[in-house]
Design a protein that fits this description.
By secondary structure, the protein is α/β, with parallel strands linked by helices. The chain contains 10 helices and 10 strands. The protein binds adenosine-5'-triphosphate and magnesium ion (MG).
Amino acid sequence: MPLLELKGLTKYFGGLGAVRDLDMQVEPGEIHGLIGPNGAGKTTVFNLVSGVYSPTKGKVFFQGEDISGKRPDLVARRGLTRTFQATTLFHNFTVLDNVMVGFHLHSKINFWGALFNTPHTRRREKELRQKALEILEFLGLAPMKDEYARNLPHGHQRALGVAIALATEPKLLMLDEPVTGMNPEETRVMMDHISKLQERGITLLLVEHDMKVVMGLCKKITVVSFGRKIAEGGPDDIKKNPEVIEAYLGGEEHVA
Ligand SMILES: Nc1ncnc2c1ncn2[C@@H]1O[C@H](COP(=O)(O)OP(=O)(O)OP(=O)(O)O)[C@@H](O)[C@H]1O
Ligand SMILES: [Mg+2]
């Protein structure tokens, strides 16, 4: 059974078909690429899957269950999390506290426990702190755990966005342009993190314009243009596909 399955997924904004009749399957354990020129509908797919938007038509299945139009926090609780195209951090929180906020998006600490600061709540906070530190360690951010997020260099801010997402313990992590604005060294480090996440058993759906990153990480790639799927396959098939080349050459981008 695919981990994620989109069936006829469609989203209209007024008369504009941002995503049209999209069928796609993400298999457990893979790094699946979703690419296409600017405005092709990639972020809209993420918004539909993560529950930010409801589909106009079609369905989203996660682990075989219909999650179409379910609220983002409920979707995240099932193990499906996304990062945002722009970095969304709590700039005036420390690095560690940013990850702690990520945990609270789905933590079992209930309202009354937090209010009365019960021993159970204190114990749970301590556990979460430990887990947060492990995530920061994993992403190479542990040395700056007490820095304000706003003071981090761009590459580290993007990595912190991934750390917050990891705090929800995703089975499927959707990354929207994780290396945008990164220099080659930061890009290499992020690619390494993504591979390691896969090794840890997390399935990844990757939207990215950097073709070296996409071709280097993904065994399977879905290409969309004007909201529709135009091709699907391995990196070599995609690079040679005339429709893909046409879609990219029509814009300013090129498939490397
Ligand atoms: N909330 C919205 N309201 C109206 N139109 C929208 C909305 N969100 C996206 N669109 C439009 O839907 C189309 C697809 O946008 P989307 O952001 O999904 O593209 P994308 O593939 O992520 O592009 P990019 O590579 O530039 O990030 C675009 O024409 C966009 O202007
Ligand atoms: Mg986008």
